[in-house]
């Protein structure tokens, strides 16, 4: 089981009003009554929630709570046994991950999924292939069709992402030779390169030291604020989650037990029980976020 929610280590930009009700046009993703079974294992039970456009939304919960299962139901890797999922108002429940990616759902993985033998630049370019209008056939008319122009514009956008994530110094390095923290950053770059409207980050800070975590938290906030991407994040570091999230959903044994602003979730007795156990509730109450000037 992961650690209890505690006071965040430092302050990041705080979101707009997290408590107001979502209007239908605000909603980018919705899960309605999602359940997921693997044989005898009930991974999710009747989970419903909405994610608003532009939100930084985190899913937390103890180990085995169903967080990755839920993210996989959003990306299309898993299909709910019951219930429906909607993206931009469209029922995407039966759609493949590729189809959903083409509609604007991007993701990173809990375990790194880079091509270790390829350069950083090539790893990021791979992410953009489906955005290319010109293909194998038109590519042979490189100078006559718009292929050259298109490639240049792709390069420019990739370079912007490389600048944004401050990985210029390793752009020609082979991905497999990089430190873990840098590889996670390249993986994020590749996911951003797909230009998703909603990006799923599965434990983006796992295995990182404090400095790497601080950097990653800053990139995620900037991604959300500057690139305007809706972010859905699973993360075990409660300090960071409570510090940067607009809203948080809490799962336990596959059920939703809480949802709201970080402050609301931290004050929720059910959440405290899930993390601390009923008997320990009085011992170490989670602290609200501290603003840092
Ligand atoms: N492919 C699968 N086949 C069988 N059972 C699975 C599969 N994926 C997940 N489960 C089970 O579903 C439940 C929820 O798992 P899930 O990985 O979604 O939890 P989690 O909250 O992401 O956990 P963690 O924090 O440890 O990553 C667990 O009991 C898990 O063993």
UniProtKB/TrEMBL annotation:
SUPFAM superfamilies: P-loop containing nucleoside triphosphate hydrolases
Keyword Protein transport: no
Pfam families xrefs: ABC_tran, BCA_ABC_TP_C
Protein name: Branched-chain amino acid transport system ATP-binding protein
UniProt KW keywords: ATP-binding, Nucleotide-binding, Transport
Protein's UniProt keywords contain Disulfide bond: no
UniProt GO molecular function: ATP binding
Domain spans labelled ABC transporter: 29-278
UniProt-listed CDD domains: ABC_Mj1267_LivG_branched
PROSITE patterns: ABC_TRANSPORTER_2 (PS50893)
């Amino acid at each position: 089981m992961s650690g209890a929610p505690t006071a965040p280590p430092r302050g990041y930009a705080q979101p707009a009003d997290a408590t107001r009700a979502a209007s239908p046009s605000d909603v980018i993703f919705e899960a309605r009554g999602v359940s997921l079974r693997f044989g005898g294992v009930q991974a999710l039970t009747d989970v419903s929630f909405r994610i608003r456009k532009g939100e930084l939304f985190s899913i937390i919960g103890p180990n085995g709570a169903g967080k990755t299962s839920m993210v996989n139901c959003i990306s299309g890797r898993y299909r709910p046994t019951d219930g429906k999922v909607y993206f931009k108002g469209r029922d995407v429940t039966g759609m493949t991950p590729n189809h959903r990616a083409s509609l604007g759902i991007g993701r990173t993985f809990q375990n790194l999924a880079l091509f270790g033998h390829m350069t950083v630049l090539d790893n990021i370019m791979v992410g953009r292939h489906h955005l290319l209008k010109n293909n194998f056939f038109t590519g042979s008319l490189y100078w006559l069709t718009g292929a050259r122009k298109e490639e240049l514009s792709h390069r420019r956008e990739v370079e912007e992402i490389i600048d944004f994530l401050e990985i210029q110094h390793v752009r020609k390095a082979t991905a497999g030779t990089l430190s873990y923290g840098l590889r996670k950053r390249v993986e994020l770059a590749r996911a951003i390169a797909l230009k998703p409207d909603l990006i799923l980050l599965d434990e983006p800070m796992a295995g990182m030291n404090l400095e790497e975590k601080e950097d990653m938290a800053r990139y995620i906030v900037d991604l959300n604020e500057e690139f305007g991407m809706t972010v859905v994040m699973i993360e075990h570091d409660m300090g960071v989650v409570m510090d940067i999230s607009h809203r948080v959903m809490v799962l336990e044994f596959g059920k939703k037990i809480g949802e709201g602003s970080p402050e609301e979730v931290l004050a929720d007795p059910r959440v405290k029980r899930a993390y601390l156990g009923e008997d320990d509730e009085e011992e170490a109450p989670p602290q609200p976020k501290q603003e840092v000037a």
